[in-house]
Amino acid sequence: MTEILAPCGSPEVLTAALRTGCTAVYLGGEAFSARANAKNFSREELAEAVRLCHIRGVKVYQAINTVITDRELSECAEAVKAACELGIDGLITQDLAVAEIVKNCCPGLEIHASTQMTLHTAEGFLFAKELGFSRAVASRELPESILRELCALPIECEVFVHGALCMSVSGQCYMSAVIGSRSANRGKCAQACRLPVSAVNNGRNTYALSLKDMSHLPHLRELEAMGAASLKIEGRMKRPEYVAAAVNAVRSELEGKDYDTSLLEGIFSRSGFTDGYYTGRPGREMFGHRSKDDVEASAGAIPALHELYRHEFKRSEICMKVSIKEGEKVTASASDENGITAEVSGGEPQKARTKAADKEYLVRQFSKLGDTVYTLKELDCEIGEGMTLPAGELSSLRRELCSELDEKRYEYFTRRPKFTERDFELAKPEKAKQCGLRIYINNREQLSQLELSGVEMICAGMKLSEELLREGFDREKLCAVMPRFTFDEKRDVYRLEKLAEQGLSHIECTNYAHIRIGRRLGMKLHGGFGLNVTNTLALRALRKAGLTDCTVSFELKASEIAALGAELDFGFLGYGRLPMMLTANCPIAAQRGCKGCTGAVYDRTGRRMPVKCSRGQGYVEILNSDILHIGDRLGNFPSAKFVSLAFYEEDPRKVRETAEAFRKGIRPEGEGFTKGLYFRGVK
């Protein structure tokens, strides 16, 4: 059976998941977990979780899946070391620094590429394999056809099958950070998307950024057949009842058994469930929010759900052998399906006063396994003539035998990879000789008044890059910005190949797939902000992967950027509407249709957030209402080799004036500007 991966935000939830039949769990420790608001597990609780799971043959994956800052690298290495010592089966991570730590310190520890890495194409999955990942978690937005392709690759594919569905592509949501300094990539998402937002500024309480929960239950056997390695349930913030209901439903569906769908719908729902991404039908029907009826249904479902995990889930059929011979201690042994064997002995038997022990009597006593994970498959026995043992002593022997088998199974399923301390000797910060200017344009007209001699590079989307090359634009000064998300990687590769044939040599890698693609074409690779680089060790990993330079995360403070080591040239985003969200389901199209496009969504206060359409790529970007402008504070970024100015709706005059302001270090005039997160930081 394909792995059933259950979320566990606390020890109580772990019990519910184990008792309903999961075959693997994922959980977080006290640091570096992308669900920082869950109860999570202390070191002692992690140790007990590993023991409980391994007795049952269940794997334990620890999420160390936030982005890491330089000051946290040593603490992160300690967390990885602890995972090795505790016998954690694998780590789930998004930060390349964690992958570097594992590769150098404990290569025997399995690592999985978190969904926050935004891996959604074959090239992205294969890049993860290059880095040493044994499994990649696919983005939730993918249809069946792409998932089928990913499952056929020489790296395991993990697929979300039930749970909350973020409006944003995972790893590419900055809304909570920009609005309230609570970073989703740091595990502190405040779920701003669940608040009222409308595609029409009419003050109505519509929920244009809230999707229904996903549920792929009808497609589980299809996913299993196509080779999905793991079926993942979302919900480390959820109650035990929720996890129990979801695990029970997934297991029952895979086994072809009936289950009560009303319990699953009752415990948590946002106006129902959706499989719109899987079936390739995104749109209005996928949207929903948690209503009063949903809350009331949840309260009513809880008592019935307790029955699902009141008893231990039977996981192992065992064969027992019992010997009761005169003058010898009674012995009992048990073997499971893996050949794991335990043996215990008790006191000496006695002559029966009435009825001697027989096989039926022993089967009756040793099959009382209700509080264990075992069922009795068969029992062999050797009984001396007229010998017996009281039922109480046999019960004690049975309990001792099961306990011993538990410990043998724990030892059998627990691996503790060796962790070797390493000094990574990271490069120190270096002051840049100059900070180059990179201009991102949205249309050709924005270049018409710009003095190009003072610009290091012009960055444009693929279609606009094609137009500029046809018009004879300087190919050495042009950088093609790859799509941040795609449903047709082969088309994107073909277009890039054509650009390369025309002499284009620079591309911006907005996700990890582009590193492999651009490298194959011999191009100069520039990492985009969507790679979420926040530390020097990640910069080193990207240098080794072939990047020329990288735009670091705009969630870093200016002081943190200034302290980054010179492992790879880097820059930062200095101007533009910060992209708060990348989504494959346009909120405007869902409410009004493309013909009624308003070009923006509005929050409860009437604040306008522009929506930038990718024009055929299948995604939109929701931009901040205020414009980032850091032109008068460039001195706070002494080690940055370049600053990027991203223009969207600006006219040519505004583009020229803004570029001049950055060259001269001039403060912007008027309202509607922000310094972003560079001085307030994130939690």
Q: How would you portray this structure in words?
A:
- 31% of the residues lie in helices and 21% in strands.
- The chain has three domains: 3-165 and 211-309, Copper homeostasis (CutC) domain (TIM Barrel, Alpha-Beta Barrel); 316-413, no CATH class; 436-577 and 627-674, TIM Barrel (Alpha-Beta Barrel).
- It has an eight-stranded parallel barrel with strand order 1-2-3-4-5-6-7-10, surrounded by seven helices. Strands 18-19-20-21-22-23-24-30 form an eight-stranded parallel β-barrel, surrounded by four helices.
- It has 20 helices and 31 strands.
- Strand 26 (600-603) and strand 27 (608-613) form a beta hairpin.
- The chain is elongated and about 110 Å long.
- The mean pLDDT is 95.
- The chain is α/β, with parallel strands linked by helices and 683 residues long.
Can you describe this structure in just a few lines?
This protein has 683 residues and is an alpha/beta fold. It is built from 20 helices and 31 strands.
CA-to-CA gap between the ends?
Answer: 40 Å
Counted beta strands: 31
CATH topology of the largest domain: TIM Barrel
Strand coverage percent: 15-25%
Mean pLDDT rating: 95
Strand order of the largest sheet: 1-2-3-4-5-6-7-10
Which structural class is indicated by helix and strand composition?
Answer: alpha/beta
CATH superfamily of the largest domain: Copper homeostasis (CutC) domain
Outline type = elongated
CATH class of the largest domain, please?
Alpha Beta
Rg computed from alpha carbons, rounded to a whole number of angstroms: 29 Å
The CATH architecture of the largest domain: Alpha-Beta Barrel
What is the number of independent domains?
3
**Count of helical stretches:** 20
Helix-residue proportion: 25-40%
Largest sheet: 8 strands, parallel, barrel
Q: Low-confidence parts, pLDDT < 50 over ≥5 residues?
A: none
